[in-house]
Structures are given as C-alpha cells and as structure tokens.
Design goal:
Strand content: 25-35%
Mean pLDDT: 87
Number of helices: 7
Largest sheet: 5 strands, antiparallel
Number of strands: 13
Shape: globular
Strand order of the largest sheet: 1-2-3-7-6
Low-confidence stretches: 1-26
Helix content: 25-40%
C-alpha cells in the first residue's frame, strides 16, 4: 500500500508543532516589570504602570446626552472618571519613584546626590509593609460644576462616614471594611482608602483567590452613575516572582 501524502503530512505536523511552540512563547512572555529592574524603566514604562497595568482600574461615568453645555471644558459628553491604583503594590510605588528619578536626571547625578535621593524615597519604596492595603483614588471631569461638587463631597468625607460603604474583598470572602480614609490636599482631586491586610490574624488574600475587589460609594453628580463602584483586580496578572503584589 502506498502513502503518497506521508511526506506532506509530516511537514504539516512539523509546522503545527512549530506554531504551538511559538504560541506558547507568546503566552508566557513576561511584562517589563518582571524582567527589568525599575531603575531601568523608561518614562513610557512608568506611565503604563500607573495608567494601564494590572494594578490600575478606571471607573468611567459618561452621560448619554451629547455635549457638556456651558460648564463643559471641552465638546465631549459630560463624564466623571475615577482612577484607582493599588498604591501599596511594590511596582506602582517603584514607577512613581522612577518617574522622579527621570525628572531629576538621577542616572547622571554624582554619587552623593544619588545617595541623598535614595534616602528621601526609601520609606515610600518600602510601603506600608504587611499591615495595610492602600488604594489611591483620583478623579477627573470635563465639567466645572461637576468638579466643584466632587471636590466638595470628597473634602468633607471621613473614615466614620465611609466605613459602611467602602470595602475590600475577595470572591466568596467577607467584606473588609475601611480602616482609614485619607483626604488629599484641598482641590487635589485625589484621596486614599486604607484597609487592613489581615483580619482575625489571617491575610485577606488567600492562595487560590483569583481577584481582589474594591467596592465604594461615590456621589451621583449630574445624574452620572448609580452611586456604587465595583472594581476587580485579577491576581494572576499581579504576580512578582510568583507572589501576588498588592
């Protein structure tokens, strides 16, 4: 019996195997924060870390009714955007420090200047340690009236006022209430939520947990949104040296 297509079949099989290996290579490709020391990150790397990385989420509230009217700062439909960073995660803090290094031309500084800089950011790089999870929240809008109302709201909030409406949790886990609310400076358009990293002696994130969820109440301004924000951070994307950094 003859097998005229045997050579062709083997060739196809080889090509398939090569494709599988190439695909596998793409799947396991690592991001810059896994392969490069933060002191070598570019400005673009830092911006990606702070705006579009697994440790950052955005809650966008957009009007369905055309332009923003007389109080708008542009011709877009009115919007309010909340940007949420897991500020206690080491890569996020490293990106902030690296941005400062780039601004101050750290790489070309003399050794004594570098040492002084390193000392000034040492505690920030170390972060809150094993006690707290820090969530940095900033907000923006293209409507001056909305901005005034948002500033007024967040400047008057306290830990006690927010304790029953701001939570951190994991899927199927209990909600961890807010430990501390830290307002930003006047009209800074930012603030922090601080949560305990452990509850009853156990870390809130356990091995196998697929996500960390933030739930928080926000003011309904200009009829945008329903007053409740839910953000989910996928833990499989947040690993450094096979450990989740948060």
């Amino acid at each position: 019996m003859r097998f005229p297509n045997l050579r062709f079949s083997r060739a196809v099989k080889s090509l398939c195997l090569i494709s599988i290996f190439l695909f596998a290579g793409v799947v396991v490709a690592k991001d810059f924060w896994e392969t490069t020391a933060f002191v070598q990150w570019s400005q673009k790397d830092c911006q990606k870390m702070l705006d579009d990385s697994p440790w950052v989420k955005e809650l966008a509230l957009v009007s369905a009714f055309g332009g923003g009217g007389g109080a708008a700062t542009d011709s877009q439909a009115p919007y309010i955007k909340y940007k949420i960073q897991l500020r206690s995660a080491a890569p996020v803090r490293q990106a902030i420090v690296r941005q400062r290094q780039i601004e101050e031309k750290y790489d070309s500084l003399p050794d004594d200047k570098k040492q002084a800089f390193d000392q000034s950011v040492e505690s920030f790089l170390l972060g809150p340690g094993s006690e707290f999870v820090v969530v940095q929240v900033s907000f923006s809008t293209n409507n001056r009236d909305y901005l005034r109302d948002l500033n007024r709201h967040w400047e008057t909030q306290t830990t006690e006022l927010l304790r029953n409406s701001v939570f951190l949790s994991v899927p199927k886990g209990e909600k961890v209430p807010l430990a501390r609310f830290i307002p930003g400076a006047s009209v800074s358009q930012e603030f922090q939520f601080v949560f305990p990293r452990e509850v009853n002696g156990r870390e809130i994130l356990k091995p196998g947990d697929k996500a960390i969820q933030l739930e928080f109440a926000y003011p309904v301004v200009g009829s945008l949104g329903d007053g409740r924000g839910f953000l989910e951070f996928k833990t499989d994307k947040m690993k450094i040296n096979n450990e989740v950094s948060y």
